[in-house]
Amino acid sequence: MNFEQLKDQWNENGTSSNEISEKMLKVREAHTPIDNIRKKMKNEFFVQLLSLIIMIFAPKVFGFSQQLSAIYFLFYAIACGFTAYYFFKFYTFYTHSYDLSLDSRKNLLWFYYEMKLNVELYKALTYIIGFIALAFSTTALVLLRGDILTKLLTKISMTYVVLNAFVAILIIGIITELWARFYYGKYLKQIKTIVDGMDEE
After folding, report:
1. Does the keyword Transmembrane helix apply (predicted)?
2. What are 75-130's pLDDT values in tens digits?
């Protein structure tokens, strides 16, 4: 092997080590938003769990009748069923993200797309809970003020009632979208920027 070949080989090794170190820097850079997302996920899990526990006491706090309490707990059980499914998916993703070595573009992409999926599930859950709350409110109104509600519906058009329900769901939707973007969006953008900056494996 002559001197020129040795020089070429040395240059090739130097380039690959530079590429590796640059890749490692990007991977390390990605860990910061990932750690922030995990921290926020953990906080949100406990906040939602605490909210569900507090909601058990709503009938006592608001002085619901026995009949209304029974209806409330029926809607509460439905809401808990949907939330339990979300918690399961949420927890599975959270624990798997620690099992997976996030040292490559492929694994970072996995985290990014799985987290996006979890954000969409979170939004869907919020819409479902919103519909359940709206359904319970309507049922409670019919039960408590059935006669008044019947008279009211004869005086105003059904279109007005549907429009109010639509506006309520729209407000829930806007708040959900803004909250998801504010809470997780910026970290997901950071991860995507880092992944896009890495070479294809």
Report:
1. yes
2. 999 999 999 999 999 899 988 888 776 667 788 888 899 999 999 998 999 889 98
Q: What is the pLDDT of residues 71-80, one digit of tens each?
A: 999 999 999 9
* pLDDT tens figures, 35-64: 888 888 889 889 999 999 999 999 999 888
Give CA separation, 64 vs 77, 79, 80, 138, 153, in Å. 17, 19, 20, 15, 24
Query: Tokens for 159?
Result: 């279109």
As for how many domains the chain has, the answer is 1
Range of the domain at 165: 3-197
